[in-house]
Amino acid sequence: MISLSLAEAAVAGSPPVTDLVMMQNMWIIGAVYVVLFFAGIAIDIVIVRRLSTSPFPWQARAVTLAARPWRWRDLLRLLAIVWVLHLTVLFGAHVFGATDGEDVAAVWYLAQSIAFHWAALVFTIAVTTKRHVSWKRAFGIEGFRSWSRTKEGVFCYVATIPVLVFYTVIYQVWLRVTGHMSSQQDVIEVFMTVDSLGVRVYLIFLAVVLAPVLEEIVFRGIALPVLVRQWGLAPAVVVTSAMFALIHLHLPSLVPLFIMSVAFSLAYYFSQSLLVPMVMHALFNGVNIGLLALVRHLSENN
User: Fold this and answer.
1) Is residue 1 part of a domain?
2) Does the pTM of the predicted model rise above 0.85?
């Protein structure tokens, strides 16, 4: 359940380490997102022109998405397993203490990762293997088209940045006006402060590989088709996006995470391949965590 948002990386306010040198280096993050913002606008203009001149099979795509071989009981079983494991980890953290040092806190984040991401992976493999369902049928992932889908994911990621920046700025202003203090996700603070190289490497792997793959499988791959079949596309996108945002339990990231999730859902709908939102998710997390790591490195060497 770890996802790094633009709000935390560029707009939300104070960095996880608030010394003067760190603050001075935060301009790097803003500069990168300025470039991404204008590149995204250019791509958005091209997309709007193409959609306005070429017919798009809206209904056919929705029917294909609803036909994915996932059922209500699959979704409910997965959520039950993940929720029980998550509560077990929270109980363990409460009993044994999760704030007695940065390295101890990191251990509990790793336990949360096992409770969600690895449990979801085992569940998905077990179900698809038992039913002899290919990943092409389950998630629209075709090996021979992986490169083209990866490129689509990159373009969709950049195209989403202007919308994400716009709503993030509005949301952050609203938070400040209403007296809510902006803060980083706890996992980002752990990454920026923990001394263990092994923990930091795993958190990078978690953010760039494990979270994008498994969170997309859960929310877009399994939940979205089930809800599309039941309620239609728009309600399904809103509900899954709200679930995705709320499950991160971080108020300053609520709107950015919701916007990200809507973009992931629409990318899956348009492309019919879960690989596209996986690439988008990996880029969102990877760019942010890479920039934060760069800022930390520069700050430590100044």
Assistant:
1) no
2) yes
User: Whole domain around residue 236: which residue ranges?
Assistant: 6-48+57-300
Cα(13)–Cα(269) distance, rounded to whole angstroms?
34
Q: How many structural domains comprise the chain?
A: 1
**Position 165 in a domain:** yes
Question: Does 36 map to a domain?
Answer: yes
Distances in Å between the Cα of 57 and the Cα atoms of 52, 61, 151 are 13, 6, 21
Sign (positive or negative) of CA dihedral 227, 229, 231, 234: positive
* Residue 133 in domain: yes
Each residue's pLDDT tens digit, 228-280: 999 999 999 999 999 999 888 778 889 999 999 999 999 999 999 999 999 99
What are the angstrom distances between the C-alpha of 145 and each of 108, 140, 158, 296?
38, 10, 21, 37
Q: Are 222 and 74 in contact (CB under 8 A)?
A: yes
Query: Looking up tokens 């990996």, which residue turns up?
Result: 282
